[in-house]
Hints:
Elements: E1 2-6, H1 16-26, E2 31-32, H2 49-62, E3 65-69, H3 75-86, E4 91-95, H4 105-108, E5 114-117, H5 121-138
Parallel strand pairs: 1-2, 1-3, 3-4, 4-5
Helix pairs in contact: 1-5
The structure holds N6-isopentenyl-adenosine-5'-monophosphate (6IA).
Amino acid sequence: MEIYFAGSIRGGRDDAALYRRLIDELGRYGTVLTEHIADPDLAEHDTSDQEIYAQDIDWLERADIVVAEVTTPSLGVGYEIARAETLGKPILCLFRPAAGRRLSAMVAGAPGPAVVAYETVEEAAAAIGNAIAAIDRAG
Ligand code: 6IA
């Protein structure tokens, strides 16, 4: 299974350590195409925005499931969710209400993504397991 994990980069890196834990969890089920999302040293480098976009769209098209941590608002993550929805991909959005934010209505109200509220990594892991089991059943 190929898994596309989406998390905020330029939207803010407050949750980068959490992304690491979620990516590790996802790694139990297959290949995470977007491992770098958790890189604490992710710095601006030579890759152009056009190259980043092209690579990410390619990965999105390949992915069997898109898992997005949506607590830190990110234009890029929102864009990826919308694109994944158009592609008909299964989408799991993980959101932490305890962080004091409200999820955008354009994600919360969209028909494609399953939005799961969670507090602990264990709860997120259970939601991931359920989403992947649903794909296995459908497949
Ligand atoms: O708007 P944001 O930057 O928060 O968007 C984050 C989302 O867009 C992530 O889920 C990524 O899949 C994608 N994305 C944004 N920037 C990059 C990137 N930059 N590399 C790969 N995917 C990205 C490379 C590092 C950069 C800081 C030079």
